[in-house]
Each structure stands twice: as C-alpha cells, then as structure tokens.
Amino acid sequence: MASAQSQEDQVLEEETSFVRILTLNRPRQLNALSAQMISRLLELFQRYETDSNVKLLILKGKGRAFCAGGDVAAVVRGINEGDWISGAKFFSKEFILNYLMATYTKPQVSILNGIVMGGGAGVSIHGRFRVATENSVFAMPETALGLFPDIGASYFLSRLPGFFGEYVGLTGARLDGAEMRACGLATHFVPSSRLALLEEALYKVNSSDPAVISAVIDKFSLEPYLKDHSAYHWMDVIDKCFSRRTVEEILSALESESTNRADAWISDAIQSLKKASPTSLKISLRSIREGRLQGVGQCLIREYRMVCHVMMGEVSKDFFEGCRAILLDKDKNPKWKPSKLELVNDNMVDQYFSKINDDRWEDIKLPARSNLPATAIAKL
User: Fold this and answer.
1) Of residues 70, 118, 297, 322, which has the active-site annotation?
2) Record's InterPro entries (predicted)?
3) Catalytic site residue 162?
4) Active site annotation includes 295
5) For the segment 3-43, what is each residue's pLDDT rounded down to a tens digit?
6) Number of domains in the chain
7) Catalytic residue status for 119
8) Domain holding 181: CATH number?
C-alpha cells in the first residue's frame, strides 16, 4: 500500500552539479501516482524552480513502466469509505502539478522507457522534452474506466495533427514510441540501449537553454520506423471519421469505412468505442473539442469541474463501475448506465461542465506564474 512507503521512497531524488534526477519508484504498481507521490513531486518542482543551482530536471520511472496513471483505485476506495471531497483533493493537487510542469521555467526531460498512461502522461507530456524508446506504450484509457482523458489531456490531445487526438482519447488506442514521435507526443526517439549514455551526457549539462539540451538529446536520437499496420498511416481516414460532430456519427463513419477495408485498427477502434462508457465518450469528445480553443489552465479548470461531477456520480456512476470491473474485481464486464449512446442527451453532458452545487466545493485555484519562457506563455 502507498502509505507503507514514505514520500521520499516513492520518488527517488539524485543530484549532479546542475541537474536533478527524479525516479518514480512504485514498480510493482507500475509507478501509479499515489497522493504521496504527487505531493512529493509538487514540493520538489516548486523548490527546484527557485534554486539557481538547478538548470535541468530529468524524470523517469523504475522498472518496466514510466507511470501507468494516477492511483484511481485508491481514490475510489476513499470515496466508497466516505466522501468524494477526498478524491477532489487528489485531483486538485495532481492538476496543479500538471499546470506547474506545463508552465515550468526550466526544462524537464521525461524518459518514457515503458508504459505511459493517464496520469503518467500528465507528469511528462506537459514538460519540454519527452524521450520515447522502442519500449514506450502510450494510452489514455479513461473512457473504458468511466472517466475521461483528464490531467490537461484536452489541451495536448486537441493539438495533435488533425483529429488524431480524438482518435487516441476516445478509443484508448495504444501507441508505440515511433507513433508517439510521429504525432508529437514525444519530442525525441532514443533506443533504450543508448539511454545510459544519454543520461550521462545530460548529467553534465550546465544550461537551461532548451536548444542546448535538445542538441544533447539529438546526438542519441534517431527517426524511428512506423510499422506498416500503424493507424498513423491512415490519417486521412482518421480525420474523415473523427472530425464528425457526435460520437454516434464517428462510430457510424468508422463502420462505413470498415465495409470498404479490413484494417485492424478500424475494427479495434469500433470495438473500443462499443465497449467504452457512453457517458464518458460524450463528455470526452466535448472536452477535447473545447480544449482546441482553450489554454492549458482553462483546460485544467474545466477538467477539474468534470472530474468532480464524475466522482459525485449524479448523472452516471460509470466511474465506480469501471473501476470495479477493470481494476478491482477485474471481470472486465462493466454494466454502464446509461447503456447506450442515444440515452446520453445533451443536458446530461452539459451538467459535467457546470459548477458544482456543494458548499464545500470551489473551482481549482491554479498558482500564479511569472517570468515564463515563450514556450510556456504560448500555452496560456
């Protein structure tokens, strides 16, 4: 259990002259982010930002995962034992960490040598450099859990080429390192056999200049080969289907395409959409669409409202059912309510985007940021 391991043990800290290396250290849980880990990362990132001796941060994971997501099973247990407000505090702190990383004044290099899902994307994709390898597996699987791509995902998914973000966010499709590099989720691709040399070179950096750091990573990088069956080869079909206005129209367009072609990714996408929570699919599509026109802070404020509605379970209790079926009982057979897309109307979707009617609740307060680099200002 997370409580048995101290904050310091869950995030290991190493120092070289001007570089700090943080290692997520819950390998048996695939480095899923506990409340302690989030608090520790927030504390360290805040401290490093004001320390003139720190020029660069490196974030990596121990074992075969970078980070498989937030520890939502622990959140659900907490809510079941009493009050959703405890869950709200978990997400509030996580989203503040995401915002700090997105607007950080010093470069962050995340080494994504393994599984990167959900909350793991939140602590890496917002940072300046994301290094994928042949072991990387990226996914935002939230719609299968009765949740939605949160952690500021409506900001970065909506900025992927074309409508690739809608495809990734709605279907939970798994991307490999080459696909991450192709669509921009990763800034570099470095074979895992070169990671030790890359880290050694980064430890010697005495600069916060992104151009200097990028040049160091470039020395170990290569342009990976996209597999023949990669969905990224079919961006024209993805754009044609996932640009549709509603989830029903997206599904219909995919089914129409599947009659003309036998590509595995299309049948996988159809199956994923049919298995996912109908409510989750509808709020996720609207979230990504709104994200196209919003800064990262606005996205996180909106997503915080949404996740609080999800935890309150007023419109649908799919999050609890999804966690039961996928994470706890593991029967992989969730019973969604409402059970069909057509039963989720616009008024129900609208509720997720409204303020919470509870005296104990308030909108998330993101920290004031100053002296930001141009790359961070552009995100606002």
Assistant:
1) 70
2) ClpP/crotonase-like_dom_sf, ECH_dom, HIBYL-CoA-H
3) no
4) no
5) 456 767 999 999 999 999 999 999 999 999 999 999 999 99
6) 1
7) yes
8) 3.90.226.10
